[in-house]
Each structure stands twice: as structure tokens, then as C-alpha cells.
Amino acid sequence: MRIARIIDLSGGIRHGVPTDDSHIRPLAMSPLDDLTLLDGQIEVQRWLAPVAPPNIFCIGLNYRAHAKETGAALPAQPVIFMKPTTTINDPMVPIVLPDACEHGPEVDYEAELAVIIGRSGKDIPVERALEHVLGYTCAN
């Protein structure tokens, strides 16, 4: 199921399934709580990023070609780092780089897969890990 997050015409934030370029079929609750679809459609005032996470964890140098491209050795353990939640950008919104950015007007982009965790847990066995995944989205 493709889930979207929007601002509706009254200014409220809603989740639903896109039906066309300007409407969603609403979910009864947050996708973290329930994936029941309601009848009818809601007009979209603005599309939002699909999630507003409390944390963003990233894994660096997780494939050989990228490590080689950067001149780095493959790490023995995953390189885990965090990004601030302010790095999330809504669709069709320009990426604004600070004037102090040392790389100039260029952005280092890569196609990334974001895994959206929908259930909390600790010390989860590998064979049960996917029970905690709500879904996936594109990231950069």
C-alpha cells in the first residue's frame, strides 16, 4: 500500500492512499496505529514527506562500490550515524544549502532506501525484524 502524508484544505495533517495528483483516500488513523481506509476522498493542499520521524539513523559505507568511490576501506562493522530530523524535505520543495557550505552549490546525492520502523523493540531476532518495519520510501 502506498501511503502519503498531506495537509488538507482545512490545514490538518492527514495520512492516506493517493488516488490521483490532488486527492487521497484517508486512513482512519495514523499508519502506525491502523491501516484501515475510510470511504471518500480528501483534497490535498500540500504533499508532505511521508513520515515525520523522531530519529533518523543512517548506515554509511554499506556497499563496496561507494567505499571504493570515496577511497575508504570497507568497515568491519556498519558505520552508524544520525541526521537531524530537519533534513527531511517535502516533495517539490527546493533543497536549500547554507551559504557556508564548503561544497558550493553542488549537492552530493545518492539514491537511498529508507526503512520506516513502525513498532518499537529491543534485541529483536533477525527472523522477526521485518515484523517491525512499517514500510519503505526513497531517500537521499
Strand-helix topology:
Layout: E1 4-8, E2 13-20, E3 23-26, E4 42-48, E5 56-60, H1 64-70, E6 79-83, E7 112-117, E8 133-139
Antiparallel strand pairs: 1-2, 1-4, 2-3, 3-4, 5-6, 7-8
Architecture overview:
This protein has one helix at residues 64-70; strands spanning 4-8, 13-20, 23-26, 42-48, 56-60, 79-83, 112-117, 133-139. The protein has 140 residues and is mainly beta. Strand 1 (4-8) and strand 2 form a beta hairpin. The model has no long low-confidence stretch (mean pLDDT 89).
Overview in brief:
This protein is mainly beta. Helices cover about 5% and strands about 35% of the residues. The mean pLDDT is about 90.
Question: Which key features would you list for this structure?
Answer:
single chain, 140 residues, four-stranded antiparallel beta barrel, two-stranded antiparallel sheet, mainly beta, 1 helix
Q: In whole angstroms, how far apart are the ends?
A: 22 Å
Bin the strand percentage. Answer: 25-35%
Global geometry = globular
Question: Helical residue percent?
Answer: under 10%
H and E order: EEEEEHEEE
Residue runs with pLDDT of under 50 for 5 or more positions: none
Structural class, from helix and strand content?
A: mainly beta
**What is Rg?**
18 Å
